[in-house]
Design brief:
Shape: globular
Number of strands: 11
CATH superfamily of the largest domain: Metalloenzyme, LuxS/M16 peptidase-like
CATH topology of the largest domain: Cytochrome Bc1 Complex, Chain A, domain 1
Helix content: 40-55%
Number of domains: 2
Strand content: 15-25%
Order of helices and strands: EEEHHEEHHHHHEHEEHHEEHHHHHEH
Distance between the termini: 52 Å
């Protein structure tokens, strides 16, 4: 059984860890409550720009010096950003924890945001946004996010808006960092081959002088309004995306929701794949998933098809969602997909990087640590009745926001669905 730890340093920084026997590597990481949900409306992309600049040099080291030092230690490192957080992490052999922590702490606390790198980063982000515009599947999901979370901080595009990226200044990025990058608004985690007392001492040395008690404001629960939203454009493709409310992180039916979503559209033996693609050949891509959230999760579904097949695709997609709600899952489906979810979670959770992500996610959203054995027990404890009761309480076809991207009008897209 892995040993798990949690403590709070005198400056307010939470540190968590999971010691994994039999490995010689470890993963080290931070999350800061500074994600896109906290971007001002006129500066959507500020979090992403800040994250992209973290490794471009600190007040005492250039970006080249940082990359050389981490490379010499054999550290695989990177940054990330989402709606709630900005992340910084690295994977390495356990003996290099001290020097790696010192470097990453410097990157986190003291980024210089050099003007020389600012325009190059701006150009890279704008190129990233142009690439998104060339990917209809990404576009329809961006549209769905804006409609589903309209008026809520989660509606903001994590990668940013082009005009905001063009207008952002070094001073604005520095202000964002100063406001949100504080010990009280951050979590540091380690997973793998380490000694907890040694790690705590190293963390105090590298991060103990870090000051600031600012915290990101609480994000209220979303309140999506069911609707159909169509964005017409000339295209040889039609993209359909849907979302509806589901259980949040930490809910008693969390793993039941994962299994239900997998049965609906999680793979080549799922209902949507077999019915929409295999039997009817309506789409080139279809799927569904459960996406957890702080106050509320969501069911998600997507289908990519041609304009001619879009009305039937839309109709069959909704039919299968309603059928799952009405009839529930079968014993054969439950057994198969419970095993699939168990295997997927356990295999993905065996690496130190995966355990690091699990530690950070569970602490950030639930303020608790969940060992891999606990997760396995929770999955094994789910019953078919629990999955079906979850579908009754949180139907996948209820409260839907449906978005279409392509040449079909709403009347055309919904023409075969009798409930539209």
């Amino acid at each position: 059984m892995p040993e798990q730890y949690q403590d709070t340093l005198p400056n307010g920084l939470t540190i968590v860890g999971e010691k994994i026997e039999g490995v010689r590597s470890l993963a080290l990481g931070f999350v800061v409550g500074a994600g896109s949900a906290h971007d001002p409306e006129e500066r959507v992309g500020l979090a992403h720009f800040t994250e992209a600049m973290l490794l471009e040099g600190t007040t005492s080291h250039t970006s080249r010096e940082i990359s050389d030092a981490l490379d010499n230690l054999g550290v695989r490192y990177g940054t990330s950003a989402d709606s709630e957080t900005i992340g910084l992490s690295g994977q390495m052999v356990g003996t290099n924890l001290g020097p790696a922590l010192s470097i990453l702490a410097d990157v986190l606390r003291n980024p210089a945001f050099p003007e020389a790198e600012l325009e190059q980063t701006r150009s890279s982000i704008l190129q990233e946004l142009r690439h998104e515009e060339d990917e209809p599947m990404v576009q329809v999901r961006n549209v769905l996010r804006k409609v589903y979370y309209k008026g809520h901080p989660y509606a903001k595009r994590p990668t940013g808006e082009p005009q905001a990226i063009r207008d952002l200044t070094r001073h604005t990025i520095q202000e964002h960092h100063a406001r949100y990058f504080t010990p009280a608004n951050s979590v540091c985690a380690v997973a793998g081959d380490f000694d907890w007392d040694e790690f705590r001492s190293l963390a105090e040395g590298a991060l103990g002088a870090w000051q600031g008690d600012g915290k990101a404001p609480e994000i209220a629960a979303p309140n999506p309004v069911p609707q159909i939203y169509i964005e017409n454009r000339e295209s040889q493709q039609e993209h359909i995306a849907a979302a509806g409310p589901s259980v949040p992180y930490g809910h008693r039916d969390y793993y039941a929701a994962i299994i239900a979503a997998e049965i609906l559209g999680g793979g080549m033996s799922s209902r949507l794949f077999e019915e929409v693609r295999e039997k009817r050949a309506l789409v080139y891509q279809v799927g569904a998933a459960y996406s957890p959230g702080r106050h509320q999760g969501s069911w998600r579904a997507y289908a990519g098809t041609t304009p001619e097949k879009a009305p039937q695709t839309y109709s069959v997609l909704l039919h299968e969602m309603r059928k799952l709600d009405a009839d529930g899952v079968t014993e054969e489906e439950f057994d198969r997909f419970q095993g699939s979810v168990r295997s997927s979670v356990l295999m993905s959770g065996e690496s130190t990087g995966a355990r690091l992500r699990s530690l950070l996610t569970s602490w950030w959203y639930e303020r608790r640590l969940k060992a891999l054995a606990y997760t396995r027990e929770q999955i094994d404890a789910v019953t078919m009745d629990q999955v079906n009761n979850t579908l009754k309480e949180w139907p996948v076809s209820a409260g839907l926001v449906l978005c279409g991207l392509g040449p079909n009008t709403q009347e055309e897209l919904t023409s075969l669905d009798r409930t539209a």
